[in-house]
Amino acid sequence: MAKNCKNVLTHGQCNNRTCPFEHKILICDPCDYIAPHKDSWKNHLEGKKHRDIVSGKAKTSHYNICQSNIVGGPQQWAAHVGSQKHRKLAATQQVDADVERQDGASTEKQEFCSLCQVSVWKSAWSRHLERPGHVQREKSRVALDEAEKDKNGISVEGGFSFDIVDPTTAGNGIQSTVTVTTSLPFSKTILAEVNMASSYNRRDAFSRFYGFYVSVDGIRIPRNVVSGRPITVRVTFRQNHIGRYEDRLELVFEDVQLKKRFTISRAVSAIVGNKVDHEALKPKAPYIPNIRADRSPVTNVIEGVAPPATTAIRFIGQLPAAKIPKGLLSVLLGPEGVRQQILHIQRAFLPGNVNGDTYGRLFKQLLWIEEFKMEYDLARYDIFNSTLSRHNSYYYLPVPGLAEKRPSVLVGDRILVQEAGAPEGRWYEGYVHVVRQAEVGLRFHTSFGWSPTQRYHIRFKLNRIPVKRQHQAMDTVFTEDRVLFPVSKHILNPRSKEMRINLFNLLIKDNPAQLRAVNCIVNQRAGSPPFVIFGPPGTGKTITVVESILQLVRNLPKARILACAPSNSAADLITERLAADLKPDDMFRVVAASRFKDQVPDAVKPFTCALPNGHFSVPAMAKMKSFKVIVTTCVSAAILSGIGMPRGHFCRIFIDEAGQATEPEAFVSIKMLADSATNIILSGDPKQLGPVIRSGIARALGLETSYLERLMRREAYAAKEANGVTGVKLVKNFRSHDTILKFPNDQFYSGDLQPCANPTTTDVYVASSILPNPKFPVIFHSVSGKDDREASSPSFFNIEEVLQVKDYVRRLRFDRHVLTTDKDIGIITPYHAQCLKLRSSLRGVADEVKVGSVEEFQGQERRVIIISTVRSSREFVEYDLRHTLGFVASPRRFNVAVTRAQALLIVVGDPHVLSLDPLWRSFLNYVHLNGGWTGPNIAWDPTIPVDEAGGYDRAIRIAARLDMNDLTRRMEEATLDTLDGEGEEDPDANVDRPWRDVE
């Protein structure tokens, strides 16, 4: 087994062509480990130490309050911050105990090595300094410092930053002048070489080394550097694409007398973009993390005046209090880390075996855990020292972020208000009566003292009504196994005499899967297990649901159907689709009283009930029972039970987009309204986004798994067994161009989807001038930008990507050959700050283009989808896949994002960040191999199969390390060593000799 070559380890290279030792050095940079041979390397990668370090669990953090360092990830940090010792010390020092995670620092007993990011006991410090990893890092740092210094009388001056260059100017080329001079009149120094670092072969590891060229005025080099005769070096930058670009100018000199070479380098940079836009979009203030203060207890609350909306619907009973049990609350507030909390909760609060009897108890605990986190997150929106304005009986509170629902405030919500300086614990509770774009109108008790100059502290309260409704559902006695835990024995044979289907939507007759689903649903026997319509993107899930409902209404005159969806928009869509064939006497849309009339589509309003004061309500029970179809959101289905709708009234309960609902949300309708004869029909796609869960603990314990997804994991719903019995998979895609569909189809749906969209829609951009490949309407635009944050917002934005997206929108909007409206374009980005910057940039250009997160686009489609991925980390050695990619590394979010596009998909991002994730790397390869790539070129071979295990972040780190080795070697070979061969000299021998910097 060959061991590592000592020449490579020491000098970075080996010139012995017959060397028997290993020249490919396996280096684990995060662990400071050099493997002696391949077997050791494999063992290291599988070891606990390596896994902990690369996952962030072994990061060294410093606790300033406690003057200590600890190795661990966010969980360990949170556990320490929550510990009694830490909080007691914080109280003693009179500082806030909840502090942001800080980098390691030296303490009384330990030294912190900033190069290696580790804490070392002082007794072991000298040994640490001799470790190969530390020595290599030190050599790299010294090499960079050395390279950037003027030396031996040579000075290099000039413009090394091109600042912000207009794209047209950059495309034509722009020059900067660098001057080389010597301060030594009798120096015999030659400028031997002038290079850009990008001319060396390993530059493909970096995303920013493009577009720089160098030349020397006058005769060719090598040439003498003579005092009084400056040498002019011209650096040319030429680049057609928006982004940030960097390189390094390296000038190699030779001291003729000493026959030694030395190098002086300078970093050069350029930003291609619009200077005015950059100025408008730059951070408004430096990013300073917001350190949250502990909420003091609320002990005395003076209740306000409730709005009429709270009494618009008369309920026959009260919702349960469902307060978080003290035992569970103490665990969530306790000092344990998340892993320990999960184990503690599993052991003490969750049932060991989940069945019909324990099902409700399981999900009640998960609901409380999620509620705790929601309350905690809501506290970040607390406002200090705010003012209130008054108009009649309303007090108006400005709420930053209200338009973006950060926080979300509805009529009937309650907000706590306290006068600054008032006795601690005493608050006024204001009911929300009015919600505007940037402010809410509150009403307080008559004793509320107001002054326009008075300052107030504001706390937002979580609206617990939806949570209480879910608890109420979990407490019911409906526990049928055929619904909760269906198995093959629950499957009933269909009706002996099948109903004849006369289609409302004639397009379904040419779609066997849709037709089969409708037939199965209509002919199901009462008391069957749930039926699943598995509908990948654009396959017509909702169309199938609507057709099934209409067939039931036509064929079963006494049928009463409840149709639910997780969101108002999805419920409205069902109503609009059914409205073409049902009259207001046949269908009713339940709308929450807190919803405003202008938020309800015009086509839906005839199917609602509104009171004279404008608030939505419900008609009398007799009328409610007469409706053949009632449509509601999942949680608002509790309204029906709350007004006295009897269990078993509905023969079918449909839940559309069921994959987006939590299991307790889905079961509000089922557990409160179903009986032993009620059939449940779910439609959705578990490969797309699931429910949004804020609590990591709740996610780990199963709340993120939807009812739909859980069912599809059961044997009775496996693909072969389910087809036409317990479910149907729709396979005809009516949305996307086949080249847009192909990649997600292969990745997520085993290639089963068939592109069936109308070419008049999907082919509209084929042959467009915007496409790199006129036959391939998918673009990946490579952009190397910069992650930015501003003020106290931790959300990222990327100016370069904003400008590139804006350019695409402008080109699409003003293309004379293809008419594209604002409504045709959707922009998806994972970061809220990027959404805000994009909206700001598009103001006056394309005001009606929708910009939002993937969650906001699920279930929607646009002719054009532009995705801005944002992240563009500059620190190669510090890449952390889990933290750097975050949103981007989610397969479900990827799937939803790319499948929203009908005719054109444009992805704007940094390929060197995206390619760390195997899924994204595969997508980038797909686009490149089909000619859809534009911008700076791909940095890897796209024909090499992608390793699904990942590890591409390690490859980047090793490439960066090798690059630094190259630089170090060039510095070592070139740096003057004036002491070589010299003995002791006459102290006065050099008195008249000019000074040289000794390096």
Automatic annotation (TrEMBL):
The keyword Transport does not apply. It catalyses: ATP + H2O = ADP + phosphate + H(+). InterPro entries: DNA2/NAM7-like_C, DNA2/NAM7_AAA_11, MOV-10-like_beta-barrel, MOV-10/SDE3_DEXXQ/H-box, P-loop_NTPase, SF1_C_Upf1, Znf_C2H2_type. Pfam families: AAA_11, AAA_12, MOV-10_beta-barrel, zf-met. Belongs to the DNA2/NAM7 helicase family. SDE3 subfamily. Residues 511-608, 625-695 form the DNA2/NAM7 helicase helicase domain. This is RNA helicase. The keyword Cell membrane does not apply. It comes from Laccaria amethystina LaAM-08-1. Its EC number is 3.6.4.13. Residues 975-999 are annotated as: Disordered. GO terms for biological process: regulatory ncRNA-mediated gene silencing. PANTHER family: CANCER/TESTIS ANTIGEN 55 (PTHR45418), CANCER_TESTIS ANTIGEN 55 (PTHR45418:SF1). Residues 27-50 form the C2H2-type domain. GO terms for cellular component: cytoplasmic ribonucleoprotein granule. CDD domains: DEXXQc_Helz-like, SF1_C_Upf1. It is an enzyme of class 3 (hydrolase). Residues 704-911 form the DNA2/NAM7 helicase-like C-terminal domain. Residues 979-989 have a biased composition (Acidic residues). It is found in: Cytoplasm, Cytoplasmic ribonucleoprotein granule. One of its GO terms (molecular function) is hydrolase activity. Keywords: ATP-binding, Cytoplasm, Helicase, Hydrolase, Nucleotide-binding, RNA-binding, RNA-mediated gene silencing. Residues 381-460 form the Helicase MOV-10-like beta-barrel domain.
